[in-house]
Amino acid sequence: MFKKLLVANRGTIAIRIIRACRELGISTVAIYSTADKEALHVRMADESVCIGPPAAEDSYLNIPSILSAGLTYGADAVHPGYGFLSENGDFAEACQRSGLQFVGPRARHIRLMGDKPRARRIMKRAGVPVLPGSEGKGVTEVRDALADGERLGFPVLIKAAAGGGGKGMRIAHDAKELERLFPIARGESEAAFSSRTMYLEKYLERARHVEFQILADSHRSVVHLGERDCSIQRRHQKVIEESPCPVLTARMREKMGKAAVRAAEVVGYSNVGTVEFLLGPDNEFYFIEMNTRIQVEHGVTEMVTSTDLVKESIRMAMGEALGFKQRNVEFRGASIEFRVYAEDPVRNIPSPGLVSNHHPPGGLGVRVETALYDGYRVPVHYDPLVAKLIVHAETRELALARARAALREYVIDGIKTNIPLHLKILHDPDFIRGDFSTSFLTRYQPETHANAERTAADSRAT
Ligand code: MV4
Description:
Elements: E1 4-7, H1 11-24, E2 27-33, H2 40-44, E3 47-52, H3 63-72, E4 77-79, H4 89-97, E5 101-102, H5 107-114, H6 116-125, H7 142-152, E6 156-160, E7 170-172, H8 175-193, E8 198-202, E9 208-216, E10 222-234, E11 237-243, H9 250-267, E12 271-279, E13 285-291, H10 298-305, H11 309-317, E14 334-341, E15 343-344, E16 349-350, E17 353-354, E18 357-359, E19 366-370, E20 377-378, E21 385-393, H12 396-409, E22 411-413, H13 419-425, H14 429-433, H15 449-454
Helix pairs in contact: 4-5, 7-8
Bound molecules: ligand MV4.
Ligand MV4 binds at residues 131, 157, 165-166, 201-204, 207, 209, 231, 233, 236, 276, 278, 288-289, 438.
């Protein structure tokens, strides 16, 4: 049983972890950079430690500082949240070596799934469908990429072997474009991940991004908690996520859920994880990657399954067995998450600053996860995600109505946010019908050349 847990994160997820600990009777140690002295997660934790200057590399990514904070304050465990060090195998290993239980999978599984070509290989061998793509360890040279492109047929997607979440991704429609974009994508991968290894995948058009939540205890029991449709993304930043996926039949859910569970089982995975699939227009589906952490959008799964995923992750890290089997998982209603970013929607740039007036919505089926408060200054140094609005209702249609009402009620003065964009999407007939794919948001914010070229510089980690 853990007595004290170090929360190795900031913002909404740090608060989410502190709340889970409080319910479990575990005391919490927050860490913060000098830019986060006034942050809500610091105020909410039982104890707090300053671990460095604003730059994430010197604070939230500083492994020695975080470990020494944990040891100095007598923590038994570390929860990494998402982003930052959450998918860093070295961090997970360093925690374990220091006697701090890492709340997440073993370092081995973080590293395995972080190597995307290797994950593809393992899944293919296990009978989990993958898209046609580069074989083996991936490619580093343009000529090898061109050979793969010719073999696969265009369009292809260039992806970073050490990537994930679409960072450094590029679509090539022909050989000439591949020749031009491959070195750019490889340069981005080198800058972001210190890796020149890339892989190609056949580009699946008009697909939906459907991911399955899995839970795996340390006694080899694995269940899935259904799916989330995360097709609504802008520059590979998710904007809206929902569960269930509006087009998934019970039969497809069972089929894809089994594949997700199998993906976890074949590698002996433990703790929470997400298996990402692309779902094509004719209901074929393909594994694209696995995320070895709790995700931003975990809340919609919590609402439809009445499960506290953060509490479950901590319990599983304590060695507890899952208290239920797959047949006991019940799905109820529809839940949708709207990510609120502190950003200038016109110029597509972060909009940090002083929050002069904050009034979050409330009421039945309305959940707000936020680190904002009146008088809080959103720092410039980190991810601009400042709140998640999660609605839940008996049907998707009722959830949409609840979301419209909640977003109209939401007041965040002093900074610019994407709330007006959410309200526009909520009146889009295709969105209302559930008829959308990964290309949906281009109609609101066309992927200009300048934007596409900027995606690389955009190194946010969620
Ligand atoms: C793809 C794809 C189509 N074909 N891979 C984006 C995030 C990362 N985890 C995987 N992603 C995708 N991979 C192949 N082979 C489509 C996406 C994708 C996407 C692409 C462009 C614009 C928005 C998107 C939203 C979700 C997924």
